[in-house]
Design a protein that fits this description.
This protein is of the alpha+beta class. The protein is about 30% helix and about 25% strand. Helix 12 links the parallel strand 21 and strand 22. The longest helix is centred in the middle third of the chain and has 13 residues. The model has no long low-confidence stretch (mean pLDDT about 95).
Length: about 425
């Protein structure tokens, strides 16, 4: 198994260019199943999850040409030959559930294995299924609860209230409703920028969707969708991760190809910590060499609140800031797997339910740690950059699912990190 070897590094300095967003490109690729015409997705990040999604879409019968060196993925779903997502791929990647809506809309059938939970929580999909049923689909789950079968000759518009503004459920319902008969309204919809990016792509394909980015999305069904080309938005979580990398190392980094509007909560919290954050046409300059940082509290919320995906990297920063900080994770029920790894490095963190209390300012020391999940892995890497001595990070496949050229980008900023095959 490959691992990262990290030594204490100098303050990071220089500039980093952010890649296309993992959590945007995956629904965009699923949306390409809705049209017979060619779809071209640019700025697609070269990530494991993108490769898995390519294989999944190919298995359903679409033509896929992924040139990830050029960050381009072309998909032509002239005909869908299968409507069962292969189990081995669904188990590998939860986002496979995003083919549910497109398959149902395009073929009237979808058979999906129940996506597994993961390190950060049980991650049920009842809101996805509630949406499909509301649109007229017959949804059955086998006795073992492992296979979901959906069918519907013709989906019809409906008004659907989401008990929680689930990103994936919003995306699946939007995609299923594009060619439903009549109008669909999603209430309490997720407002994440990745939803807006998906809707922009669907509207280019001929869909008629309004309200993306608000809590109410209206979709007027159309007969067919045609192919389109689209540039993926920059990854706001990768942006936040590198902004925090500048802060934790007390360095100065220019983060380029970032949409400031998408990272407002992270910018606000870094400023509260005493970090200088300057937005310009070039990007976001994060400067943390102005002396002592100040502890602060964060509470994760659906967008536009502080993003849950930034909770663990930001916690790593807070372990290095003198004083007591509180973290409240309201989105996932088990997103503190990284705490025990940070404790191995000397961090003082107490967890009680959804709340974590950090006594920051103590010196972190190198240790052998695990990447417990994608963002928890990023957290221990950032901590390793400032810990005394050497840190070894195992299970780095989690990290490489969601950060393109992570090691190269950190090394270009002066990070002393290398990848080692066992
Ligand atoms: C997306 O996951 C992201 N993944 C996650 O990013 C992100 O953390 C999450 O949104 C929240 O922002 C992708 O976009 C591929 P949710 P998703 O449905 O769609 C509960 C990363 O690190 N819920 O908004 O699965 C669920 O259990 C990943 O890049 C239900 O209860 O998130 C969770 O507690 C991690 N029932 C909460 O909602 C449902 O039917 C948020 O889930 C669906 C969700």
């Amino acid at each position: 198994m490959a691992k990262y070897i990290i030594e204490k590094s100098d303050p990071l300095r220089g500039e980093v260019t952010i890649s296309g967003a993992k959590n945007a490109v995956l629904p965009l690729m699923a949306a390409a199943l809705l049209s017979e015409g060619p779809c071209v997705i640019r700025d697609a990040p070269a990530l494991k999850d993108v490769e898995i999604m390519c294989r999944l879409i190919e298995a359903l019968g679409a033509e896929v040409d992924a040139d990830l060196d050029q960050n381009v993925v072309s998909i032509t779903a002239k005909e869908i030959k299968a409507y069962q997502a292969p189990m081995d791929l669904v188990v590998k990647m939860r986002a496979s559930i995003l083919v549910l809506g497109p398959l149902l809309a395009r073929t009237g059938h979808a058979v999906i294995s129940m996506p597994g939970g993961c390190a950060i929580g049980d991650r049920p999909i009842e809101l996805h299924l509630k949406g499909m049923r509301a649109l007229g689909a017959d949804v059955t789950i086998n006795e073992e609860g492992s296979i979901i079968t959906c069918s519907c000759e013709q989906l019809r518009g409906a008004t659907i209230y989401l008990d929680f503004p689930s990103v994936g459920a919003t995306e699946n319902i939007v995609m299923a409703a594009c060619m439903a008969r009549g109008t669909t309204i999603i209430e309490n919809a997720a407002q994440e920028p990745e939803i807006t990016d998906l809707v922009n792509f669907l509207n280019k394909m001929g869909a008629r969707i309004k309200g993306a980015g608000t809590d109410t999305i209206k979709i007027e069904g159309v007969e067919k969708l045609h192919g389109a080309m689209h540039y993926v938005i920059p990854d706001r979580i990768e942006s936040g991760t590198f902004m925090v990398a500048a802060a934790i190392s007390r360095g100065t980094v220019l983060v380029k190809n970032v949409l400031p509007d998408h990272v407002k909560p992270v910018m606000a919290k870094l400023k509260e910590c005493g970090v200088e954050v300057v937005v310009s046409d070039e990007g976001i300059l994060v400067n943390a060499d102005k002396g002592e940082l100040i502890s602060t509290d964060i509470k994760t919320l659906p967008y536009p609140g502080f993003p849950t995906d930034m909770q663990s990297p930001f916690m790593a920063l807070l372990t290095t800031v003198e004083g007591t900080s509180a973290v409240i994770e309201t989105v996932f029920e088990n997103r503190y797997m990284h705490v025990k790894e940070l404790r191995k490095m000397g961090a003082s963190i107490k967890v009680d339910g959804r709340c974590a209390i950090i006594e920051g300012g103590g010196k972190l020391h190198g240790a052998k740690v695990n990447a417990t999940d994608l963002r928890g892995g990023a957290a221990v890497v950032l901590a390793g950059l400032v810990a005394e001595g050497r840190t070894e990070v195992d299970s780095i496949y989690h990290i490489e699912r969601g950060y393109e050229h992570f090691v190269e980008k950190l090394r270009a900023l002066g990070g002393r990190i290398r990848r080692e095959e066992d």
